[in-house]
Predict the structure.
Amino acid sequence: MTDLLNILQYTFMQRAILAGIVAGVMCSIVGVYVVLKRLSFMGAGISHSAFGGVALGYLLGIDPMFTAIGFCVLSALGISFFSRRKIVREDTVIGIFYSASMGLGVFLTGYLRGYNVDLFGYLFGNILAVTISDLKIMTGVLAIVVFLVIFYYKELLSIVLDDETAAVSGIPVAFLNHLLAGLVAITIVVSLRVVGIILVSALIVIPSAAAMHMTDNFKTLMALSVTIGVLSCLTGLFLSYLLNTPSGATIILTATLIFVIAALRTSLRRAH
């Protein structure tokens, strides 16, 4: 306990804790809609497309965060557009964007020298390396996500429940689906520093999936999802320090453990 209290005096740990709280809240809010609309695979596809944007940013000498945002938003809108027009099946579209973006990222790294360590930081995350600038961006995006979710609360809930009924009611379903895809994309990019490209989609899906085993009420589901997300980030962060393990992987394994306990509880309750 003394060791844990001592590390709180370090600035990098204070930034990591704040980043964990912001990422946990942001990913969990967006994750509720992703899980309820069964868009988990889309989240994975968007997150992996960030690799192409990060590599392009390094190649052009600009902040990889901005190019990754551009790549992810375009991928999200592309997936949403082609899926809704039923030009290609959704899983096929996601697979194409996923593979093409990763392929472009690997291709561009061939032209980079000396940036491989930073690229691995984006792939696997390093919450301890979060900067003040990263925190400001994350907090700003969290504010945007919270504002839009509150502003479109009834409309987003309607498209989660039933797209067709919402359209008949005059709700702009296409716009809201594109908006949701954009929110997922931006949330993924600004959370890359915490758990990395490979694992960020898990931080979006797992807290919400665990919360679904605890309640059927939407508002309670949102609150539980946020609680589990933040708890996973902070517990995973401190465990990674104590066990000297990668922080991103430890955070995801912590969230997974909570999900398993919640799922087993549901299974046992149904058995009786």
Q: What stands out?
A: The radius of gyration is 19 Å. The mean pLDDT is 85. Residues 11-36 form the longest helix (26 residues). Residues 54 and 65 are 7 Å apart (CA to CA).
